[in-house]
Amino acid sequence: MIYTVTFNPAVDYVVHTEELTAGTVNRSVSEEIYFGGKGINISLVLAELEVPSKALGFVAGFTGEAIEKGLTEYGIQTDFVRLEKGFSRINVKIKSGTETELNGQGPDIPPHKLEELFSKFEGLCEDDTIILAGSVPKSLPSDIYEKILGYFSGKNVRTVVDATGELLLNTLKYSPFLVKPNNFELGELFGVNIATADDVVEYAERLREMGAQNVLVSMAQDGAVLLDSDGRTHICGVCSGTVRNSVGAGDSMLAGFIAGYEKGGYEYALKLGTAAGGATAFSEGLAKRSEILALLEQL
Question: Active site includes 12?
Fold first, then answer.
């Protein structure tokens, strides 16, 4: 089983207007509601690829109930920790030529609720996969990723980390199965400018030397690079299409990679991840199965 962890899930309220004028009443042309957070995005794309997952994390209030219900209706198992106070955040995204966002803060997570999350980890078995993705709320310890990977150390559970900066670097001593920075995040980790695929390979190899088993680096219009646990380098180009959306493309790539690895090893995983990331980038929302498979044919 694949488990995703989203510390701060959200209801994304997307509003389309012809024009946005501050200080006046504005009318929408159309609206959509999505359930978001990096781990949830990954579970949604895994579901499109017919790979089951279970979504973990924290929810609160009426928005938390909506998130749980929405994911269940989508066929995703959930086992969130419910918080007694506050409500899961609402992110407002206003699209009117340009995009304006107002992201909610989310509820505080008390220490005893974090302990409850760890108690749910007891159900993971050998060869399960747990994916940690996204930022950490201020109410949680800054080393929470490190603590979770430490908990799974020696238990033969595959750990996947999609994070930035120290949050990522501090997990490497626990040899995560996969880390997934993009090329800009990779450069920030080492204080350098990543300009070429050779640069990506050089610094991805440093992450492997520091403990990561596999390093997947997305490079937007320049494709993706994978350094696998055997030290081999795999490079994949991009699919053809018109970019409409960048939100969730990296999450979709990660979901596609994990789904592909479960089914066919590294080469297939990289191609399916690239197709899934592209399908989201070319869509208004997260990738759908038919779109992913159509782009996979290009690769």
Answer: no
